Description:
It is a single chain. By secondary structure, the chain is mainly alpha-helical. The chain has a domain at 10-258. It is built from 24 helices and 3 strands. Strands 1-3-2 form a 3-stranded mixed sheet, with helices on both faces. Strand 2 (104-107) and strand 3 form a beta hairpin. Helix 3 (68-82) crosses helix 5 (125-140) and helix 5 packs across helix 9. It is flat and about 70 Å long.
Amino acid sequence: MIRLNKAPLCLLLATLLGPGQAARADNFNALPEIGTTAASTLTIEKEMAYGDAYMRMLRASMPVISDPLLSEYIQDLGHRLVANASDVRTPFNFFLIQNREINAFAFFGGHVAIHSGLFLHANTESELASVVAHEIAHITQRHLARSMEDQARKSPATIAALVGSMMLAIASPEAGMAAIHATTAASAQGQINYTRSNEKEADRIGITTLAKSGFDVQAMPRFFGRLADQYRYASTPPAMLLTHPLPESRISDSRSRASQYPAQKLNTSERYQLARARIVARYAGIDSDAAQDWFDRQLKKARGVRKDALNYGKALVHIDARQYPQAHALLDPLLAGDPDNRFYIDAATDLDLYEKQYDQAISRLEKALKANPEHQVLRLNLADALQEAGRHHESISILNRYSHDHPDDTNGWYLLAQAYAHNGRRDAELAARAELMALRGQWDKAIKYYIEASQLVEMNSLDQARYDARIDQLRLARSRVADL
Protein backbone atom coordinates (compact mmCIF):
# COMPACT_ATOMS: atom_id res chain seq x y z
CA MET A 1 0.00 0.00 0.00
CA ILE A 2 1.00 3.61 -0.50
CA ARG A 3 2.76 5.36 2.39
CA LEU A 4 2.83 9.15 2.28
CA ASN A 5 5.98 11.02 3.22
CA LYS A 6 5.99 13.19 6.31
CA ALA A 7 6.78 16.91 6.29
CA PRO A 8 7.07 19.38 9.18
CA LEU A 9 3.60 20.18 10.45
CA CYS A 10 4.57 23.79 10.90
CA LEU A 11 4.50 24.10 7.11
CA LEU A 12 0.74 23.60 7.27
CA LEU A 13 0.33 26.57 9.54
CA ALA A 14 2.70 28.72 7.50
CA THR A 15 0.78 27.96 4.33
CA LEU A 16 -2.62 28.54 5.87
CA LEU A 17 -1.69 31.78 7.59
CA GLY A 18 -0.42 33.35 4.38
CA PRO A 19 1.09 36.85 4.26
CA GLY A 20 -1.34 38.31 6.79
CA GLN A 21 -4.31 38.43 4.43
CA ALA A 22 -7.79 38.33 5.89
CA ALA A 23 -10.29 35.99 4.28
CA ARG A 24 -13.45 37.91 3.43
CA ALA A 25 -16.93 36.48 2.98
CA ASP A 26 -18.71 39.00 0.77
CA ASN A 27 -21.94 37.06 0.36
CA PHE A 28 -23.96 35.98 3.35
CA ASN A 29 -24.96 32.33 3.37
CA ALA A 30 -28.67 31.98 2.79
CA LEU A 31 -28.95 28.82 4.88
CA PRO A 32 -30.52 29.06 8.36
CA GLU A 33 -28.10 29.57 11.24
CA ILE A 34 -27.62 27.19 14.13
CA GLY A 35 -26.96 29.00 17.36
CA THR A 36 -24.80 31.74 15.84
CA THR A 37 -24.32 34.01 12.84
CA ALA A 38 -21.35 31.94 11.69
CA ALA A 39 -22.03 32.70 8.04
CA SER A 40 -20.95 36.30 8.61
CA THR A 41 -17.43 34.91 9.15
CA LEU A 42 -17.26 32.16 6.53
CA THR A 43 -19.62 30.96 3.81
CA ILE A 44 -20.11 27.25 3.25
CA GLU A 45 -18.28 27.66 -0.07
CA LYS A 46 -15.25 29.22 1.65
CA GLU A 47 -15.27 26.49 4.32
CA MET A 48 -15.14 23.85 1.57
CA ALA A 49 -12.24 25.67 -0.12
CA TYR A 50 -10.29 25.73 3.17
CA GLY A 51 -11.13 22.07 3.77
CA ASP A 52 -9.94 20.99 0.33
CA ALA A 53 -6.66 22.91 0.74
CA TYR A 54 -6.06 21.46 4.20
CA MET A 55 -6.86 17.92 3.03
CA ARG A 56 -4.20 18.21 0.33
CA MET A 57 -1.67 19.39 2.91
CA LEU A 58 -2.50 16.49 5.22
CA ARG A 59 -1.86 14.00 2.41
CA ALA A 60 1.62 15.48 2.03
CA SER A 61 2.47 15.81 5.73
CA MET A 62 0.77 12.98 7.61
CA PRO A 63 0.80 9.20 7.16
CA VAL A 64 -2.70 8.96 5.70
CA ILE A 65 -3.62 5.28 5.40
CA SER A 66 -4.27 4.53 1.74
CA ASP A 67 -5.37 0.92 2.34
CA PRO A 68 -8.43 0.48 0.06
CA LEU A 69 -10.19 -2.00 2.35
CA LEU A 70 -9.87 0.23 5.40
CA SER A 71 -10.80 3.32 3.42
CA GLU A 72 -13.93 1.56 2.19
CA TYR A 73 -14.83 0.51 5.72
CA ILE A 74 -14.44 3.94 7.33
CA GLN A 75 -16.26 5.66 4.46
CA ASP A 76 -19.18 3.22 4.74
CA LEU A 77 -19.38 3.69 8.51
CA GLY A 78 -19.19 7.47 8.25
CA HIS A 79 -21.79 7.78 5.52
CA ARG A 80 -24.17 5.48 7.37
CA LEU A 81 -24.07 8.06 10.17
CA VAL A 82 -24.27 11.06 7.81
CA ALA A 83 -27.40 9.58 6.22
CA ASN A 84 -29.09 9.91 9.64
CA ALA A 85 -27.59 13.25 10.68
CA SER A 86 -29.40 16.60 10.60
CA ASP A 87 -28.27 19.89 9.05
CA VAL A 88 -25.88 18.27 6.58
CA ARG A 89 -24.68 21.02 4.22
CA THR A 90 -21.49 19.63 2.70
CA PRO A 91 -20.24 16.34 1.27
CA PHE A 92 -18.36 14.21 3.80
CA ASN A 93 -14.99 12.51 3.50
CA PHE A 94 -13.70 10.07 6.14
CA PHE A 95 -10.10 8.90 6.26
CA LEU A 96 -7.58 7.20 8.54
CA ILE A 97 -4.22 8.43 9.81
CA GLN A 98 -1.60 5.94 10.98
CA ASN A 99 -0.99 7.12 14.52
CA ARG A 100 -1.20 5.18 17.80
CA GLU A 101 -2.49 8.28 19.60
CA ILE A 102 -6.19 8.14 20.51
CA ASN A 103 -7.61 10.95 18.41
CA ALA A 104 -10.11 12.02 15.79
CA PHE A 105 -10.75 15.45 14.35
CA ALA A 106 -13.06 17.20 11.92
CA PHE A 107 -12.38 20.23 9.77
CA PHE A 108 -13.92 22.43 7.10
CA GLY A 109 -15.58 20.86 4.08
CA GLY A 110 -16.89 17.72 5.79
CA HIS A 111 -13.50 16.05 6.35
CA VAL A 112 -13.21 13.68 9.33
CA ALA A 113 -9.88 12.07 10.30
CA ILE A 114 -9.66 9.03 12.55
CA HIS A 115 -6.38 7.87 14.07
CA SER A 116 -5.69 4.16 13.75
CA GLY A 117 -5.06 4.15 17.52
CA LEU A 118 -8.79 4.54 18.11
CA PHE A 119 -9.35 0.99 16.83
CA LEU A 120 -7.08 -0.34 19.56
CA HIS A 121 -9.26 1.22 22.28
CA ALA A 122 -12.76 0.97 20.80
CA ASN A 123 -13.96 -2.53 21.64
CA THR A 124 -17.07 -2.40 19.44
CA GLU A 125 -18.18 -0.74 16.24
CA SER A 126 -20.69 1.34 18.22
CA GLU A 127 -17.85 2.79 20.31
CA LEU A 128 -15.98 3.82 17.17
CA ALA A 129 -19.21 5.13 15.65
CA SER A 130 -19.83 7.27 18.74
CA VAL A 131 -16.56 9.13 18.09
CA VAL A 132 -17.33 9.54 14.38
CA ALA A 133 -20.88 10.75 15.12
CA HIS A 134 -19.45 13.30 17.54
CA GLU A 135 -17.07 14.62 14.84
CA ILE A 136 -19.90 14.76 12.28
CA ALA A 137 -21.82 16.97 14.70
CA HIS A 138 -18.86 19.36 14.94
CA ILE A 139 -19.17 19.84 11.17
CA THR A 140 -22.95 20.07 10.89
CA GLN A 141 -23.03 22.61 13.73
CA ARG A 142 -20.16 24.55 12.14
CA HIS A 143 -18.19 24.69 15.36
CA LEU A 144 -14.97 25.83 13.68
CA ALA A 145 -16.71 28.79 12.04
CA ARG A 146 -18.51 29.63 15.27
CA SER A 147 -15.25 29.44 17.22
CA MET A 148 -13.56 31.79 14.79
CA GLU A 149 -16.45 34.24 14.99
CA ASP A 150 -16.20 34.19 18.77
CA GLN A 151 -12.44 34.75 18.68
CA ALA A 152 -12.71 37.45 16.02
CA ARG A 153 -14.91 39.50 18.37
CA LYS A 154 -12.26 39.32 21.10
CA SER A 155 -9.01 39.86 19.21
CA PRO A 156 -7.51 41.67 16.22
CA ALA A 157 -6.29 38.42 14.67
CA THR A 158 -7.05 37.95 11.00
CA ILE A 159 -9.44 35.22 9.88
CA ALA A 160 -6.55 33.62 7.98
CA ALA A 161 -4.52 33.38 11.19
CA LEU A 162 -7.49 31.93 13.08
CA VAL A 163 -8.13 29.36 10.35
CA GLY A 164 -4.50 28.31 10.40
CA SER A 165 -4.14 28.00 14.15
CA MET A 166 -7.51 26.31 14.73
CA MET A 167 -7.04 23.79 11.93
CA LEU A 168 -3.56 23.01 13.21
CA ALA A 169 -5.00 22.65 16.73
CA ILE A 170 -7.40 19.89 15.73
CA ALA A 171 -4.64 17.96 13.95
CA SER A 172 -1.73 18.65 16.33
CA PRO A 173 -3.15 19.88 19.63
CA GLU A 174 0.04 21.02 21.35
CA ALA A 175 1.33 22.99 18.35
CA GLY A 176 -2.14 24.27 17.52
CA MET A 177 -2.97 25.49 21.00
CA ALA A 178 0.29 27.44 21.04
CA ALA A 179 -0.63 28.99 17.71
CA ILE A 180 -4.07 29.98 19.00
CA HIS A 181 -2.54 31.75 21.99
CA ALA A 182 -0.08 33.50 19.68
CA THR A 183 -2.80 34.81 17.38
CA THR A 184 -5.56 35.73 19.83
CA ALA A 185 -5.95 37.87 22.89
CA ALA A 186 -8.76 35.77 24.36
CA SER A 187 -8.19 34.21 27.74
CA ALA A 188 -7.26 30.54 27.92
CA GLN A 189 -10.18 29.89 30.24
CA GLY A 190 -12.62 31.42 27.78
CA GLN A 191 -11.30 29.17 25.00
CA ILE A 192 -11.67 26.07 27.19
CA ASN A 193 -15.22 26.98 28.21
CA TYR A 194 -16.27 27.53 24.61
CA THR A 195 -14.72 24.21 23.60
CA ARG A 196 -16.59 22.37 26.35
CA SER A 197 -19.84 23.93 25.18
CA ASN A 198 -19.16 22.63 21.69
CA GLU A 199 -18.29 19.21 23.04
CA LYS A 200 -21.57 18.82 24.90
CA GLU A 201 -23.51 19.94 21.84
CA ALA A 202 -21.62 17.46 19.66
CA ASP A 203 -22.32 14.69 22.20
CA ARG A 204 -26.03 15.48 22.29
CA ILE A 205 -26.41 15.56 18.52
CA GLY A 206 -24.06 12.61 18.05
CA ILE A 207 -26.15 10.40 20.34
CA THR A 208 -29.25 11.21 18.29
CA THR A 209 -27.38 10.30 15.11
CA LEU A 210 -26.15 7.07 16.69
CA ALA A 211 -29.69 6.07 17.64
CA LYS A 212 -31.10 6.83 14.18
CA SER A 213 -28.28 4.83 12.58
CA GLY A 214 -28.98 1.70 14.62
CA PHE A 215 -25.94 1.80 16.89
CA ASP A 216 -25.80 1.32 20.65
CA VAL A 217 -26.14 4.81 22.17
CA GLN A 218 -24.68 3.58 25.46
CA ALA A 219 -21.38 3.18 23.60
CA MET A 220 -20.64 6.90 23.80
CA PRO A 221 -20.67 7.36 27.61
CA ARG A 222 -19.12 3.90 28.03
CA PHE A 223 -16.17 4.70 25.74
CA PHE A 224 -15.66 8.25 26.99
CA GLY A 225 -15.90 7.11 30.60
CA ARG A 226 -13.32 4.39 30.02
CA LEU A 227 -10.92 6.91 28.45
CA ALA A 228 -11.39 9.36 31.33
CA ASP A 229 -10.68 6.64 33.92
CA GLN A 230 -7.65 5.36 32.04
CA TYR A 231 -5.99 8.78 31.68
CA ARG A 232 -7.31 10.53 34.79
CA TYR A 233 -3.86 10.85 36.36
CA ALA A 234 -1.74 10.73 33.21
CA SER A 235 0.88 13.48 32.93
CA THR A 236 0.53 13.48 29.13
CA PRO A 237 -3.06 12.66 28.12
CA PRO A 238 -3.76 11.54 24.54
CA ALA A 239 -4.34 14.17 21.87
CA MET A 240 -8.06 13.48 21.87
CA LEU A 241 -8.38 14.64 25.48
CA LEU A 242 -6.52 17.87 24.71
CA THR A 243 -9.01 18.88 22.02
CA HIS A 244 -11.98 16.98 23.47
CA PRO A 245 -11.89 17.50 27.26
CA LEU A 246 -13.78 14.89 29.28
CA PRO A 247 -14.87 16.45 32.57
CA GLU A 248 -17.21 14.38 34.72
CA SER A 249 -20.12 16.69 33.88
CA ARG A 250 -19.80 15.90 30.18
CA ILE A 251 -19.68 12.14 30.79
CA SER A 252 -22.68 12.35 33.12
CA ASP A 253 -24.60 14.40 30.58
CA SER A 254 -23.94 11.90 27.77
CA ARG A 255 -24.89 9.01 30.09
CA SER A 256 -28.14 10.74 31.00
CA ARG A 257 -29.05 11.37 27.36
CA ALA A 258 -28.18 7.82 26.32
CA SER A 259 -30.40 6.42 29.08
CA GLN A 260 -33.43 8.00 27.40
CA TYR A 261 -33.15 5.45 24.58
CA PRO A 262 -34.23 1.81 24.98
CA ALA A 263 -31.40 -0.62 25.65
CA GLN A 264 -30.48 -2.87 22.75
CA LYS A 265 -28.07 -5.72 22.19
CA LEU A 266 -26.38 -5.69 18.81
CA ASN A 267 -24.58 -8.53 17.09
CA THR A 268 -20.80 -8.20 16.85
CA SER A 269 -19.89 -6.36 13.66
CA GLU A 270 -17.75 -8.70 11.55
CA ARG A 271 -16.48 -5.87 9.32
CA TYR A 272 -15.37 -3.82 12.30
CA GLN A 273 -13.52 -6.75 13.84
CA LEU A 274 -11.82 -7.49 10.51
CA ALA A 275 -10.86 -3.83 10.04
CA ARG A 276 -9.54 -3.72 13.60
CA ALA A 277 -7.47 -6.87 13.05
CA ARG A 278 -6.06 -5.43 9.82
CA ILE A 279 -4.99 -2.25 11.62
CA VAL A 280 -3.29 -4.21 14.41
CA ALA A 281 -1.48 -6.37 11.85
CA ARG A 282 -0.33 -3.60 9.53
CA TYR A 283 -0.84 -0.12 10.97
CA ALA A 284 -0.32 -0.29 14.73
CA GLY A 285 3.40 0.43 14.52
CA ILE A 286 4.41 -2.79 16.27
CA ASP A 287 6.62 -5.63 15.04
CA SER A 288 5.33 -9.03 13.97
CA ASP A 289 6.10 -10.73 17.29
CA ALA A 290 4.21 -8.08 19.26
CA ALA A 291 1.27 -8.28 16.86
CA GLN A 292 1.10 -12.07 17.09
CA ASP A 293 1.25 -11.84 20.88
CA TRP A 294 -1.68 -9.38 20.85
CA PHE A 295 -3.75 -11.70 18.66
CA ASP A 296 -2.91 -14.74 20.78
CA ARG A 297 -3.97 -12.98 23.99
CA GLN A 298 -7.22 -11.84 22.41
CA LEU A 299 -7.95 -15.31 21.02
CA LYS A 300 -8.04 -16.81 24.51
CA LYS A 301 -11.42 -15.17 25.14
CA ALA A 302 -12.75 -14.80 21.58
CA ARG A 303 -15.66 -16.62 19.95
CA GLY A 304 -17.47 -16.56 16.62
CA VAL A 305 -16.78 -13.76 14.15
CA ARG A 306 -14.34 -12.13 16.54
CA LYS A 307 -12.24 -15.31 16.61
CA ASP A 308 -12.29 -15.47 12.80
CA ALA A 309 -11.18 -11.84 12.58
CA LEU A 310 -8.28 -12.46 14.96
CA ASN A 311 -7.12 -15.45 12.92
CA TYR A 312 -7.36 -13.28 9.80
CA GLY A 313 -5.11 -10.73 11.52
CA LYS A 314 -2.60 -13.44 12.41
CA ALA A 315 -2.62 -14.58 8.77
CA LEU A 316 -1.80 -11.04 7.63
CA VAL A 317 1.17 -10.90 9.98
CA HIS A 318 2.43 -14.20 8.55
CA ILE A 319 1.96 -12.92 4.97
CA ASP A 320 3.92 -9.75 5.68
CA ALA A 321 6.67 -11.81 7.35
CA ARG A 322 6.80 -14.09 4.26
CA GLN A 323 5.69 -17.05 6.36
CA TYR A 324 3.40 -18.45 3.70
CA PRO A 325 2.61 -21.96 5.03
CA GLN A 326 1.49 -20.50 8.37
CA ALA A 327 -0.62 -17.93 6.53
CA HIS A 328 -2.31 -20.60 4.42
CA ALA A 329 -3.09 -22.69 7.51
CA LEU A 330 -5.09 -19.80 8.96
CA LEU A 331 -6.50 -18.17 5.83
CA ASP A 332 -7.59 -21.14 3.74
CA PRO A 333 -10.26 -22.35 6.21
CA LEU A 334 -11.58 -18.79 6.58
CA LEU A 335 -11.89 -18.36 2.83
CA ALA A 336 -13.51 -21.77 2.42
CA GLY A 337 -16.12 -20.86 5.02
CA ASP A 338 -16.81 -17.39 3.56
CA PRO A 339 -15.57 -17.27 -0.07
CA ASP A 340 -17.18 -13.90 -0.82
CA ASN A 341 -15.57 -12.06 2.10
CA ARG A 342 -13.54 -9.22 0.55
CA PHE A 343 -11.07 -9.10 3.45
CA TYR A 344 -10.26 -12.77 2.90
CA ILE A 345 -10.13 -12.39 -0.90
CA ASP A 346 -7.70 -9.47 -0.53
CA ALA A 347 -5.42 -11.48 1.76
CA ALA A 348 -5.58 -14.55 -0.47
CA THR A 349 -4.65 -12.37 -3.45
CA ASP A 350 -1.65 -11.05 -1.52
CA LEU A 351 -0.57 -14.64 -0.95
CA ASP A 352 -1.04 -15.50 -4.62
CA LEU A 353 1.11 -12.58 -5.74
CA TYR A 354 3.86 -13.23 -3.21
CA GLU A 355 3.96 -16.86 -4.35
CA LYS A 356 3.94 -15.71 -8.01
CA GLN A 357 0.62 -17.43 -8.66
CA TYR A 358 -0.47 -14.57 -10.92
CA ASP A 359 -3.08 -16.42 -12.97
CA GLN A 360 -4.68 -17.71 -9.77
CA ALA A 361 -4.84 -14.18 -8.32
CA ILE A 362 -6.35 -12.75 -11.50
CA SER A 363 -8.89 -15.56 -11.76
CA ARG A 364 -9.86 -15.13 -8.10
CA LEU A 365 -10.44 -11.38 -8.55
CA GLU A 366 -12.29 -11.69 -11.87
CA LYS A 367 -14.65 -14.19 -10.28
CA ALA A 368 -15.30 -11.82 -7.36
CA LEU A 369 -15.88 -8.92 -9.76
CA LYS A 370 -18.61 -10.81 -11.59
CA ALA A 371 -20.71 -10.51 -8.45
CA ASN A 372 -19.55 -6.92 -7.72
CA PRO A 373 -18.42 -5.43 -11.07
CA GLU A 374 -17.95 -1.87 -9.78
CA HIS A 375 -16.33 -2.71 -6.48
CA GLN A 376 -13.48 -0.30 -5.76
CA VAL A 377 -11.15 -2.62 -3.84
CA LEU A 378 -11.53 -5.53 -6.23
CA ARG A 379 -10.85 -3.32 -9.26
CA LEU A 380 -7.67 -1.95 -7.70
CA ASN A 381 -6.51 -5.42 -6.69
CA LEU A 382 -7.12 -6.73 -10.21
CA ALA A 383 -5.14 -3.85 -11.73
CA ASP A 384 -2.28 -4.58 -9.32
CA ALA A 385 -2.37 -8.31 -10.09
CA LEU A 386 -2.30 -7.62 -13.85
CA GLN A 387 0.75 -5.41 -13.35
CA GLU A 388 2.51 -8.09 -11.31
CA ALA A 389 1.79 -10.52 -14.16
CA GLY A 390 3.31 -8.10 -16.68
CA ARG A 391 -0.05 -7.36 -18.31
CA HIS A 392 0.36 -3.60 -18.03
CA HIS A 393 -1.86 -2.66 -20.98
CA GLU A 394 -4.86 -4.39 -19.39
CA SER A 395 -4.05 -2.73 -16.07
CA ILE A 396 -4.01 0.72 -17.73
CA SER A 397 -7.50 0.23 -19.12
CA ILE A 398 -8.88 -0.55 -15.65
CA LEU A 399 -6.96 2.24 -13.91
CA ASN A 400 -7.92 4.96 -16.39
CA ARG A 401 -11.56 4.31 -15.70
CA TYR A 402 -10.94 3.93 -11.97
CA SER A 403 -9.08 7.26 -11.71
CA HIS A 404 -11.86 8.96 -13.63
CA ASP A 405 -14.43 7.59 -11.17
CA HIS A 406 -12.25 8.21 -8.07
CA PRO A 407 -9.98 11.20 -8.87
CA ASP A 408 -9.14 11.80 -5.19
CA ASP A 409 -7.78 8.29 -4.59
CA THR A 410 -3.98 8.32 -4.60
CA ASN A 411 -3.90 4.54 -5.13
CA GLY A 412 -5.31 4.79 -8.65
CA TRP A 413 -2.84 7.45 -9.80
CA TYR A 414 0.11 5.67 -8.19
CA LEU A 415 -0.68 2.38 -9.93
CA LEU A 416 -1.42 4.18 -13.20
CA ALA A 417 1.97 5.93 -13.13
CA GLN A 418 3.65 2.55 -12.57
CA ALA A 419 1.71 0.94 -15.41
CA TYR A 420 2.56 3.68 -17.90
CA ALA A 421 6.23 3.55 -16.86
CA HIS A 422 6.38 -0.16 -17.62
CA ASN A 423 4.51 0.43 -20.88
CA GLY A 424 6.98 3.08 -22.04
CA ARG A 425 4.49 5.96 -22.00
CA ARG A 426 6.62 8.63 -20.32
CA ASP A 427 4.15 11.47 -20.99
CA ALA A 428 1.22 9.58 -19.44
CA GLU A 429 3.40 8.51 -16.51
CA LEU A 430 4.27 12.16 -15.83
CA ALA A 431 0.60 13.15 -16.05
CA ALA A 432 -0.37 10.51 -13.46
CA ARG A 433 2.43 11.63 -11.16
CA ALA A 434 1.25 15.22 -11.59
CA GLU A 435 -2.19 14.23 -10.30
CA LEU A 436 -0.54 12.69 -7.23
CA MET A 437 1.33 15.95 -6.61
CA ALA A 438 -1.88 17.97 -6.97
CA LEU A 439 -3.65 15.76 -4.42
CA ARG A 440 -0.86 16.68 -2.00
CA GLY A 441 -1.08 20.39 -2.73
CA GLN A 442 2.31 20.39 -4.46
CA TRP A 443 1.10 22.58 -7.30
CA ASP A 444 4.46 23.59 -8.74
CA LYS A 445 5.59 19.99 -9.14
CA ALA A 446 2.24 19.02 -10.66
CA ILE A 447 2.47 21.83 -13.23
CA LYS A 448 6.11 20.99 -13.99
CA TYR A 449 5.24 17.35 -14.70
CA TYR A 450 2.39 18.32 -17.02
CA ILE A 451 4.61 20.78 -18.90
CA GLU A 452 7.17 18.01 -19.44
CA ALA A 453 4.40 15.66 -20.59
CA SER A 454 3.11 18.26 -23.05
CA GLN A 455 6.59 18.68 -24.53
CA LEU A 456 6.92 14.93 -25.13
CA VAL A 457 3.84 14.45 -27.29
CA GLU A 458 3.16 15.50 -30.88
CA MET A 459 2.58 19.21 -31.43
CA ASN A 460 -1.13 20.16 -31.63
CA SER A 461 -2.18 16.60 -30.80
CA LEU A 462 -5.20 15.75 -28.64
CA ASP A 463 -2.86 14.66 -25.83
CA GLN A 464 -1.04 18.00 -25.90
CA ALA A 465 -4.34 19.91 -25.83
CA ARG A 466 -5.45 17.83 -22.86
CA TYR A 467 -2.21 18.35 -20.96
CA ASP A 468 -2.19 22.09 -21.64
CA ALA A 469 -5.79 22.41 -20.45
CA ARG A 470 -4.87 20.62 -17.24
CA ILE A 471 -1.92 22.98 -16.73
CA ASP A 472 -4.33 25.92 -16.87
CA GLN A 473 -6.62 24.22 -14.35
CA LEU A 474 -3.77 23.56 -11.93
CA ARG A 475 -2.50 27.13 -12.19
CA LEU A 476 -5.97 28.39 -11.37
CA ALA A 477 -6.21 25.99 -8.40
CA ARG A 478 -2.81 27.16 -7.14
CA SER A 479 -3.95 30.78 -7.40
CA ARG A 480 -7.16 30.10 -5.49
CA VAL A 481 -5.29 28.40 -2.67
CA ALA A 482 -2.89 31.34 -2.48
CA ASP A 483 -5.86 33.69 -2.24
CA LEU A 484 -7.05 31.87 0.89
